[in-house]
Every structure is written in structure tokens, then in C-alpha cells.
Amino acid sequence: MKVAVAGCCHGALDKMYETLELLQRRHNVRPDLLLCCGDFQAVRNEADLRCMAVPAKYRHMQTFYRYYSGEKKAPVLTVFIGGNHEASNHLQELPYGGWVAPNIYYLGYAGVVRFRGVRIGGISGIFKSHDYRKGHFECPPYNQQTIRSAYHVRNIEVFKLKQLKRPIDIFMSHDWPRSIYHYGNKKQLLKMKSFFRQEVESNTLGSPAASELLQHLKPTYWFSAHLHVKFAAFMQHQTNSKEELPKATKFLALDKCLPHRDFLQIIDIEHDPSAGDSLEYDAEWIAVLKATNSLVNVTQSSWNMPEKNGLHAKWDYSVTEEAIKEVLEELNHNLKIPCNFTLTAACYDPSKPQKQVEPVHTINPQTTEFCAQFGLTDINDRIQQTKEEGSVRGEYEEEEEEEEMDSTGSAEEPSEYNTDNSGLSSINPDEIMLDEEGGDEDLSTCSVDPSPDHPPDFSASFSDIRIMPDSMAVSSDDAMDSTNEELEKSGVSKQVEEKSLNERPLKRIGGNENGNSGIKKIKRRNQAIYAAEDEDKTE
Questions:
Q1: What CA dihedral angle connects 201, 206, 212 and 218, to 10 degrees?
Q2: Pairwise CA distance, residues 64 & 14, whole Å
Q3: Which of these, 119, 139, 426, lies nearest to 285 by C-alpha position?
Q4: Other C-beta atoms within 10 Å of 298: how many?
Q5: Sequence-separated (6 or more) residues with CB below 8 Å from residue 171
Q6: DSSP structural state of residue 359
Q7: What is the C-alpha to C-alpha distance for residues 73 and 70, in angstroms, rounded to an integer?
Q8: For 458, which DSSP code?
Q9: Looking at residues 469-496, what average pLDDT do you find?
Q10: pLDDT tens-digit map of 218-233
Q11: What are the DSSP E strand ranges found in 37-175?
Q12: More confident residue, 341 or 495
């Protein structure tokens, strides 16, 4: 089975699918599946644009809305994860995954599916330690903080994925697993991207959460994006016992989708020829979701996942074969994911722009159906319940305050809030300022002599194997902040007045940071990566 893998799409679906069609015409190569490693930008309308954490001048509609409306249809089954530049309000509707358009499937905050017997997993977003232990509490309309925290990886998703026992064939993450650069052509990477050196040498580039999952899941393939550079690595995993067979992971990071860039990779994957052509649920993953349902948290409170430390009565939430069998029986052994895509927002109309439309918190019927079928908590419904409870408490407290003010005869005027996110900072703290310092050389095909600093490249040979050291082990409660974290603290933005989240009701679809100090110019993150015409800037 031929699988096409793409890096950051940035909403350029037409370009991506046109490239696939060109491959077919020129080389007779037709992929059976397309995987996208984040920054997909499933933007349906102007409200979605305002929920995307990018400077206003880089908010472009692009072409996804044509696929959402039905004007166009993806020519190949497309499965993607979320990155750090997404219409977060749209993806939030599908926390467990679902169709964002016909033939285009989002894996959710974390997820596992099957296609032709190939097991595909992924985790959306990027790692930020200050949000890692929180619940998924954000909802639109977002403020200056939540518009970013909405796409930060949470420990509960990592915990769920770590309950999996069966082998994973393909895994996707947006940011790279921390330390993976030690298993590829690191010298060439630093030659091209010299500003990575400090983080590479201090081993702070990448996600410790993804690194933890890499060590646990040991997938055959791991695909990432985010840094806008193509890079290959090969990791031989340590075995836990003499009986355990050695496992290795082929890692590949993809460039962003731009004209004249090699942003697609075609991989041949062994598959089950007797399996159908439909995307399917993964029975073990469904069983894990059911087993961990009681751990769902929709508050800002930080908490740790259960551990074997004497503080928890239960810490192992992996599932038995019997639990997996029960899932199969519930589905009558029919694992096909229903094609139940539903429009939940108005589609962009170029002839009738609506720049002032406000984003609303929506419950997607796909999520409602999925949760009802498997007895799971609808995260968005729980968020709304929490908001309503908080609103009732707020009204009670307000009445008490009014009584107190009446007795004193004085009160401050209430402040006004503005929900317009178009005034967001022109600097996104989550951006990587990556100035191109060389050509667009493909790190996956660089030929170098094998050495500790020059392991063999991905596309040529995997015979020279490096063993992953124990020092790579990262705890799930790792609190190390990367240089990116420091940027988030140093990035100064315009003061943005915000409207209370409680002021907007949930929309249920039926049926079918402050101050004006200067900003330091540092060689780290670059806004211009959003502009497709600027090919010499990367994120």
C-alpha cells in the first residue's frame, strides 16, 4: 500500500492534491492514503480564522472551505492531526476525532484508527509544560491565552496512548520527539539550521511527551512536521527482556507545503490485502477510551495521571483481550467508521464576506453519536456544564456584592470587554523563528560516512543501528521548559481586553498576556512562514 505523507499543509489543500495528481500522471504513482502531520488549517469561515493563533495579516482563507462545502472532494482518503496553527474551534468539536469534510478525517486530541489492516495513531498539538497537566478547558470565544493553550498537548492524551499494548505501524506528532535528532544526520541539520544548535546541544529541542510515547509505542514509522525541514532518523529501541524481539522506528520529518518544495513523501507499507478500503475504528483504542473515561478533566486545575506510587488505587488502565472483544461485539464486528460528516457552521462565501462574525462553542453531532455509542463523556458538553455551574455561582456572588454595595453606597463601574481576537499580538510565542541559512537540501537523502555524528540516512540504509540511551527516558510529569517557553515569557503583546467566556452560550447542532514594551528581535521564530509566497522563511 502506498502512503503519502505531508508536513504542514497550512490550508493549501488544492496544492497538495494537485501534487498527488501530478505524481500519478507523470510517474503512475497513486497513493492509497494521505497523512498530514498538523497545521492542516481546516478553516470554514471568517470566525474560524479568528480562532487560529497567527498574526491577523497571515489569516488567509486558503482552500479548505471548498472541501467543507462539498464544492470539491478530497481525491484520496486523508487523515490528519492538529498542529499549532489550526482553527481550534473547529477541531475542538471533534475531541475523539471525526470527519471535517467528506474523505478528510481528523484523529482528535489523540487517536488510533485502521486502514487496510495498517494501524495508524497520532497526537495533536505541541508540548508546553505549563499546560501539560491541565484539562481541556478552553472553548470559544478564546482569549489571548486560550487561543494558544487550546492546542497544547495534555498528559491525559499521552496517558491514554501509553495504555496501548498492540503494535503501532504508523504514528504522527506535530512537533518532533525530543532527542530524535541524535539518530539522524545531526551535523547536516545544524549546517542548515544553525539556530537549532543551542537546543540540540542542551537536548531541549522537541517534545518530551512525544519522546516518551516513542519509547513506549515503538512504532515502525513516526512522522512529524512543525520545524519546516525534511529530516530522517533511525532508532533502534532497547528491549526490556531477552524474550522481546528488537524493534526499530524509522523517523521522518516533512517540510511545509509550498510550491517547488519537496513536501510529500511516498512510503510503501505492508497491509492486509483482505481488508476493506474503509477507515476503521481500532478496537483496543476504543476499549482504552472507555477504561480511561473517568479521568476526563475539563478544568484548568493541574493534576497528574495515576502512577504506581502508593497514591492511587489503580494506575494500569491498559485493557484486556476480553474488553477488546466486548467492543467488537458492541459493533457486531463491523469497525467501519460511519461517513456521518455534518456541516456545523456556515461556509465561507467570497461574494458575501462576514468579517465580524463571532466564533461559538459548538457540539458536533459526530461527537454526540460517538460518545453515546461507547458510553464516553462528551468533553464539550462537560465544558458547557462547568461554565453554567460557574455562571450560577457568579450570579449568586454578584447579588451578594450588590447588596454590599447598596449598604456602602458606592461601586465601581463595570469594565467592558472585547472579544475581537484580531488585535492579538503580532508575535506568536509559539512560533519558531527559523531563518534559512542555506539551501533547501533534503536531509533525508544526504550522503555521509557513518559515524556517531553521521548515522545512515533514512532513504538509503538502516544497517548501522544506534541504541537509544537510558538518558532519553522522560517522565510523563517532566516539567522542563524549552527555549520556546522562554520566548513565550519574553514575547510582549498589545493589551487585549477580553470578554468573559461565560457570556456566550453553547451552540448545539442538531441532526443532519500586557504592556507595550519593545520586542527583542531574536533568531528564533518567524511570522512569515504563513505567507506561501515567502519560501525562504520557515517556522
A1: -100
A2: 8
A3: 119
A4: 21
A5: 120, 121, 122, 213, 214, 217, 219, 221, 222, 223
A6: P
A7: 6
A8: T
A9: 36
A10: 999 999 999 999 999 9
A11: 78-80, 98-101, 104-106, 110-115, 118-123, 170-173
A12: 341
Residue 318 identity: S
Q: Which of 443, 432, 436 is nearest to 231 (CA)?
A: 443
Among residues 531, 478, 500, 513, which one has the least CA distance to residue 133?
478
What is residue 293's DSSP assignment? G
Tell me which H or E stretch contains 69.
helix 64-69
Separation CA 111–CA 121 (nearest Å): 6
Cβ count near 133 (within 10 Å): 18
Beta bridge partners of 115: 118, 279
CA triplet 359, 134, 397: central angle to 5 degrees? 70
Q: Per-residue DSSP letters for 502-518?
A: GGS-EEEPP--------
- Which residues are CB-contacts of 338 (< 8 A; sequence separation ≥ 6)? 369
Question: Hey, what's the cell of 68?
Answer: 467543507
Residue 316 pLDDT greater than 90, yes or no: yes
101-110 confidence digits (pLDDT tens): 999 999 999 9
C-alpha cell at 327: 467492543
Q: Report the residue count for the chain.
A: 539
Cell of 119: 494501524
What is the value of pTM for the model shown?
Answer: 0.77
Question: Is 288 in contact with 164 (CB distance < 8 Å)?
Answer: yes
3-state secondary structure of 346: coil
Q: Which residue has the cell 540511551?
A: 469
- CA separation for the pair 346, 41 (Å, rounded): 16
Count the Cβ atoms, other than its own, within 10 Å of residue 325.
Answer: 13
Q: Compute CA distances 35 → 20, 256, 501, 535, whole Å.
A: 12, 13, 34, 23
The C-alpha cell 527559523 sits at 434
Average pLDDT for 210-214? 97
Q: Long-range contacts for 410-417 (Cβ within 8 Å, ≥24 apart)?
A: 415/497, 416/497, 417/497, 417/498, 417/499, 417/500
Q: Which three cell numbers stand for residue 533?
A: 509566497
**10: phi > 0 → left, psi -120 to 50 → alpha, else beta; which?**
left
With beta carbons less than 8 A apart as the criterion, state whether 135 and 296 touch: yes
| Helix 283-291 / helix 365-374 crossing angle, nearest 10 deg | 80
Name every residue whose Cβ is closer than 8 Å to that of residue 486 and which is 6 or more positions away in sequence: none
**Residue 344: burial class (beta carbons within 10 Å; 0-12, 13-18, 19+):** buried
Residues 78, 105 contacting (CB under 8 angstroms): yes
Query: Is the model more confident about 173 or about 392?
Result: 173
